[in-house]
Amino acid sequence: MSGPAVDPQQLASQLVAGDRQALARAITLVESSRLADWQASEELLTAILPTSKSAARIGITGIPGVGKSSYIEALGCMLAKAGKRVAVLAIDPSSLLSGGSILGDKTRMEELARMEHAFIRPSPSSGALGGVGRRSREAILLCEAAGYDLILVETVGVGQSESSIADMVDCLVLLMLAGTGDDLQGIKRGLLELADLLLMHKADGEGLEAAKLAGKQLQAAVNILHGAENSRPVLNCSSLEGTGVAESWTEISRQLEEGERSGARQARRQQQDLRWFEQSVGALIQERVLASSETAEHFTRLREAVLAGTLHATQAARQLAAVATQRLPS
After folding, report:
1. Which of 104, 178, 198, 322 is the most buried (most CB within 10 A)?
2. Closest Cα partner for 218 from 238, 244, 195?
3. What is the pTM for the complete model shown?
């Protein structure tokens, strides 16, 4: 971030008070790659840690073009009109060449963006894998601290490898389309195995009958995958016509309430926090290794050897790890 130094405690107070501009500044701070902002970011997250974590975290995923933004706007508007505070974290893919992102979700959710009880934050993936942003988990915590009842996380939409979203939400909604081959992928594992609710989207007009048929086929496949007693529901939905949106929220609410009642929701979040911790350890070790001038020199030398083909990538990594381990305090 540029400009004057951030006061994490003051920013946290403004955030908890419901200041939307403070929330936007806070997310910008935690997404910053500047070393000078890292300490302020950690202080901010520590300051908001005691705040309530009662918000429902919902992941929305599916292939590009399936209508994720349309569904989020339809669902978000319905809930905002009912008095709920809705935050949307929309992840846009970053260019592999320039690193930039379009970040156009506010233009795709015009009605929701204008609502008083809604907050929409487009963020770049910044090279993070799994369909989410590099700091999506931190952004979720900030939205919770700001008092939002519902946090919708829209993924990039990269296909069946897009699984990281399941490690940060209470309920994962997978949107699918009839006639694209997705209805024939039902027996495959991956996202289908992780999804809590499947929506056959764009079930309207001439595509309605095809969606109904694909939905039945998909339900049969999901029943086989999970077993009939533990299967996941498949619903038809049209954000364009507004059909099925309320029904999808009824099912999401039912699952959230059941998870709260049984303790499964708390257990799920505990496991998510442990995986977040383990992933953070690896990322921080890498950052510390590359931050050291001595290990950075070894990294450059080994990188050149890999490029020249004189050293295997795994061998190079092991050599760098050995050098880094020697530099660690005993």
Report:
1. 198
2. 195
3. 0.83
